[in-house]
């Protein structure tokens, strides 16, 4: 049951981000240039803090990596949903959508480099 839920949640997130991007496609690149770096820095900072705090609490390196990834990818979909539904403005969802794209890229990088570094579950 766990694997289908992971796949379904990833698909839903991709659809939500794609919907936001399509709704503002005319200005997306301009917003990406403006909000991309702050969103990336926020993502890297939260992932780094999650990793370091996990190590500080004496968790194993694989556990720290897992917490780092989870910390970095939390709440992207929630922010997009709140912006589009509760605030009724797709433009408010631009920064969360950019963060959402970047969070998966940074998480994927960590997932793929952990094996060559000898860090396995």
Strand fraction: under 5%
Helix content: over 70%
Point out poorly predicted stretches. Answer: none
The count of strands amounts to: 0
The outline comes out as: globular
Order of helices and strands: HHHHH
Output mean pLDDT.
Answer: 81
Termini separation (Å)? 20 Å
The number of helical segments is 5
Q: The biggest beta sheet, please?
A: none
Rg of Cα set: 16 Å
Provide the number of structural domains. Answer: 1
Structural class of the helix and strand makeup? mainly alpha
So what's the oligomer here?
single chain
Structure overview:
The chain is mostly helical. It has one domain (2-114). It is built from 5 helices and no strands. The protein has helices at residues 2-23, 28-56, 61-73, 76-86, 94-114. The protein is globular, with a radius of gyration of 16 Å. The model has no long low-confidence stretch (mean pLDDT 81).
Topology:
Elements: H1 2-23, H2 28-56, H3 61-73, H4 76-86, H5 94-114
Helix pairs in contact: 1-4, 1-5, 2-3, 2-5, 3-5, 4-5
Task: Explain briefly what this protein structure is.
The protein has 5 helices and no strands. The chain is mainly alpha-helical. The longest helix has 29 residues.
Which characteristics define this entry?
121 residues, mainly alpha, 79% helix
């Amino acid at each position: 049951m766990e694997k289908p839920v992971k796949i379904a949640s990833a698909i839903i997130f991709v659809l939500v981000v794609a919907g936001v991007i399509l709704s503002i496609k005319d200005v997306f690149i301009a917003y990406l240039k403006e909000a991309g770096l702050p969103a990336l820095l926020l993502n890297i900072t939260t992932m780094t803090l999650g990793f370091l705090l996990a190590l500080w609490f004496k968790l194993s390196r694989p556990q720290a990596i897992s917490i780092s990834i989870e910390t970095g990818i939390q709440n992207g979909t929630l922010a997009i949903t709140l912006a589009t539904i509760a605030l009724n403005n797709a433009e408010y969802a631009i920064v969360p959508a950019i963060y959402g794209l970047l969070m998966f890229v940074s998480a994927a990088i960590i997932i793929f480099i952990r094996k060559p570094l000898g860090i396995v579950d």
